[in-house]
Amino acid sequence: MSDDTVVVWDPSLLAYDLGDHPLDPVRVELTIALARELGILERAGVRLLPPTPADDDLLTRVHDPRYLDAVRIAPRDPLFAGFGLGTSDNPVFDGMHESSALVTGASVIAAEAVWRGTARRAVNVAGGLHHAMPARAAGFCVYNDPAVAIARLLDLGAERIAYVDVDVHHGDGVQQIFWDDPRVLTVSLHETPLALFPGTGFPDETGGPNAAGTAVNIALPPGVEDAGWQRAFHAVVPSVLRAFRPQLLFTQCGADAHRVDPLADLHLSVDGQRATYLALRALADELCDGRWVATGGGGYALVEVVPRAWTHLLAVATGAPLEPATLTPPAWRELAMARRPGFDVPLRMTDDVDPGYEPWQPTGEPSAVDRAIAATRKAVFPLLGLDPHDPRD
């Protein structure tokens, strides 16, 4: 296996543009620009690959052919309605099929490179559109690129793929698509569905009758900061991954759990997000011989958060992590100010937060985070042969 890291990138990925909308492609443009200015994309062993669009054979591994027809037709029909398209969340835009297929193709290329051994890790920061359903757009997502890429891995012979979603919103589309497939473990940490879209992701959602224990959901209360988030992550994710023994780790790394994100209510820092990427890489190294595919996802603090978070992701995936106190380059700051006048442009790659945490223990007076941890462990750990009360599991 090659030790290279593939980054799938081309400016054409910015054409996934919903218009005047929270999911602005400028966040991806500024991520790549920041990573380039910091020298991450020029590191030894980093290969940039251009995307190619997913064809209908790939897309219909997940999506209904009638839905593909609707995505193609909708931009040409001003009266079109249906399939979740034409809403405020998912407005119709020119080239919708082509740009969505390109984002999906980029994630497929990343997954294939890792599976075939031409790279150990791969990243598509434009991907992570995890809400799209087989026959419906949802949550800013037209095609579900993580699900299509995972389906492609299954077609190539994969037997155990772990999908870990750290977006603030539940990874509902991926969970539903593989709900009854024992070959795919879906793990999602998110703000409680009682408070946030999409209203799913409760602890008792644990997989279909043929795949019990392969859906894992940690639903966190609003206001959780780095210490609580990390406590929940480490109390659940390593254990379920070790029990499942994946051959490859696929992650959706939405940056919208950050404290200044306008669409949610968790209070993470960029430093906490960086710590999560390091933990995910360590799990891939421990369990999958390093095989790790990472995508972007949500994130609506377009200048203040997403470029820094995903540049940390790219640094972790390509080699040495960036020091948190690293300065953002002046040329990048100028670009950010030009693209988004009036926005606060960060001067450093840190929020000056220590993301340390106290490991979970099943004793003492439980906090709201501890109750969320206990609910998940109680629901799913026995299905995986784990003891929900033993902190070693």
UniProtKB/TrEMBL annotation:
Keywords: Acetoin catabolism. Belongs to the histone deacetylase family. Residues 21-315 form the Histone deacetylase domain. PANTHER family: HISTONE DEACETYLASE HDAC1, HISTONE DEACETYLASE HDAC1-RELATED. Signal peptide: none annotated. Pathway: Ketone degradation; acetoin degradation. InterPro entries: AcuC, HDACs, His_deacetylse_dom, His_deacetylse_dom_sf, Ureohydrolase_dom_sf. This is Acetoin utilization protein AcuC. It comes from Micromonospora lutea. It comes from the Bacteria. The gene is acuC.
